[in-house]
Design a protein that fits this description.
With about 110 residues, this protein is of the alpha/beta class. The protein contains three helices and three strands, in the order H-E-H-E-E-H. It has a three-stranded parallel sheet, sandwiched between helices. Helix 2 (about 65-70) links the parallel strand 1 (about 50) and strand 2. The longest helix is centred in the last third of the chain and has 15 residues, at about 95-110.
Length: about 110
C-alpha cells in the first residue's frame, strides 16, 4: 500500500501496455447518462440515503441528498466535516468513513 499521498503508477494493459483507467469519474467529468438517470430514480425511491465523504457542493451529485429529503427519505452524512443542510430528517456523523461506517453498520444491524 502506498504511503499517504504518494503517487503510484496505474496498472498497464496486458495487450497494448497503455495505462489503464480506473472505474471512476474524475472531477469535471459527467457520469454516463444512464448511470445518472439510475441514481436519480434510486434516490427518489429510497427510504434512507447514506452520503459518504462528499463535500456536498459539486453539482449535480450534491443535489442528491436534497432530492432524497424532498422524496421523504432520511439522509445520513458521513464526513470529516459537517455537510448537513439542517433538515430534521438528516443525521451528520463526523469522522473518517473507515471508522464511522463499521460502527454505523453495527448499529443498524443491532436495530435489525
Amino acid at each position: 500500500m502506498p504511503e499517504e499521498g504518494a503517487l503510484i503508477e496505474p496498472p498497464r494493459c496486458q495487450r497494448c501496455n497503455g495505462k489503464m483507467r480506473p472505474a471512476v469519474v474524475w472531477y469535471g467529468e459527467d457520469l454516463p447518462p444512464s448511470s445518472w438517470k439510475a441514481a436519480v430514480l434510486l434516490v427518489k425511491d429510497c427510504d434512507l440515503m447514506i452520503s459518504v465523504g462528499t463535500s456536498g457542493i459539486v453539482m449535480p451529485a450534491a443535489g442528491l441528498p436534497d432530492l432524497a429529503l424532498a422524496s421523504g427519505a432520511s439522509v445520513i452524512h458521513v464526513n470529516k466535516a459537517d455537510v448537513a443542510m439542517g433538515d430534521q430528517k438528516e443525521l451528520m456523523l463526523i469522522g473518517a468513513a473507515a471508522e464511522v461506517l463499521p460502527m454505523l453498520l453495527e448499529e443498524l444491524s443491532d436495530d435489525g
